[in-house]
Design goal:
This protein is α+β, with helices and mostly antiparallel strands. The chain has helices spanning about 1-5, 10-20, 25-30, 45-60, 80-90, 130-145, 180-200, 215-225, 230-240, 275-285, 290-305, 350-354, and strands at about 45, 65-75, 100-105, 105-110, 120-125, 155-165, 165-175, 310-320, 335-340. Helix content is about 40%, strand content about 15%.
């Protein structure tokens, strides 16, 4: 099975798999299985969540970690069934019933035994098409910008907008501390659709009961840190980020504001197909992934504009590295500070290898 799966992998992934399999077998097996915590056992905040909690506390009045998603429903929609389905989702997943509190100097997760919400409906179907779109965007934007109190339920805001009799949008604004994008397409949408379809057909939903909850994962992560399982990885990052960390000095067209505003944006662009294929082939020849190659190019670009040869770039890694975590709702993202040294005299292949 492993061999047949490996044969389907791209060349860079196959090489990475070979490196992993060539490692220490004991090290690969040392991570004990995640166990369900005893009933009533309070779960600590996970290390992934702690990153979010600290930054959110530093800017309590800003919606830094609000995550907004849209689910579009084509065809008729039974609001009562959708509401029933959503509340069944809350029953199945503790993380959607979780708040956070400080207990004896530690941040812990407080799970409510039950939670029932209503799905407010806004009917825009009578408005002209352009006005409908503007108003829907305004409503979703207001929900996404409103600050959450991490000590109060719920840490999400649902809204259903009727654009037409056969066109509905389900807007969901979450605080990132209980949700990430992978949760949306791996667990939430499939389960919500399965429950709704069952109820619509007059059948009792029969999804398998979750064997683990996010709090079990959080406790497991803490235990791994306590027993030294991550000492090697922690030592690596301490070396990488030791000394004085550089501040990127890009030339700007105006002075930086005296007060940090957290204003930002997202730039989206499409690479031409020929260039995209060239990137993939070049990465393959160099034994790298396209991500590694593009990261190297980006670091060089920043170095050229700033005149610096010590560049730190922020990135994100998904911590769902075990099969039992794949269908779990929660926050599993780890923020990484990737430190690179694109010196002008260094050939690109050597920098890519680093």
């Amino acid at each position: 099975m492993v061999m047949s799966d490996a044969a389907q992998l791209s060349e860079p992934k196959r090489l990475l798999l070979q490196k992993m399999l060539a490692g220490n077998p004991a090290a690969r097996m040392e991570a004990a299985a995640i166990a369900a915590r005893p009933p009533g056992k309070t779960a600590p905040i996970s290390p992934d969540q702690m990153n979010v909690w600290v930054h959110a506390a530093m800017a309590a009045d800003a919606p830094l970690y609000n995550e907004s998603v849209t689910i579009r429903r084509r065809g008729p929609l039974d609001l009562a069934l959708l509401e029933h389905s959503f509340n069944e989702l809350l029953r199945r997943h503790e993380i959607l019933r979780t708040t956070f509190a400080e207990v004896e100097g530690e941040i812990v997760q407080i799970v409510a035994p039950t939670l029932t919400v209503e799905l407010p409906l806004t009917d825009l179907s009578a408005l002209p098409a352009e006005e409908r779109e503007r108003e829907a965007a305004r409503l979703a934007g207001n929900d996404a910008r409103a600050v959450f109190d991490l000590g109060k339920l719920p840490l999400f805001r649902p809204r259903v907008v009727r654009m037409a009799a056969d066109d509905h949008r389900i807007y969901l604004a979450f605080h990132h501390i209980v949700f990430d994008g992978v949760s949306l397409y791996k667990a939430m949408v499939p389960e919500l659709a399965a429950i709704y379809d069952s109820l619509e057909a007059g059948v009792t939903p029969c999804l398998p009961k979750p064997t683990l909850q996010y709090g079990d994962y959080a406790l497991w992560r803490h235990q791994r840190v306590a027993n030294g399982a991550l000492d090697k990885e922690l030592a690596y990052w301490r070396r990488q980020l030791s000394g004085e960390l550089p501040v990127l000095q890009l030339p700007c067209d105006r002075p930086r504001p005296e007060t940090l505003t957290y204003s930002g944006g997202m730039e989206t662009f499409v690479l031409p197909r020929a260039l995209s294929e060239h990137v993939k082939k070049l990465a393959l020849r160099k034994g790298a992934t396209p991500y590694m190659l593009l990261l190297a190019v980006y670091a060089i670009l920043l170095a050229r504009y700033s005149g610096q040869d010590d560049i730190v770039v922020g990135s994100i890694a998904d911590c769902r590295q075990r099969p039992e975590l794949q269908g779990m709702l929660g926050y599993f993202l780890n923020s990484l500070a990737l430190r690179t040294h694109p010196a002008p005299q260094k050939p690109f292949p050597a920098f890519l290898e680093e």
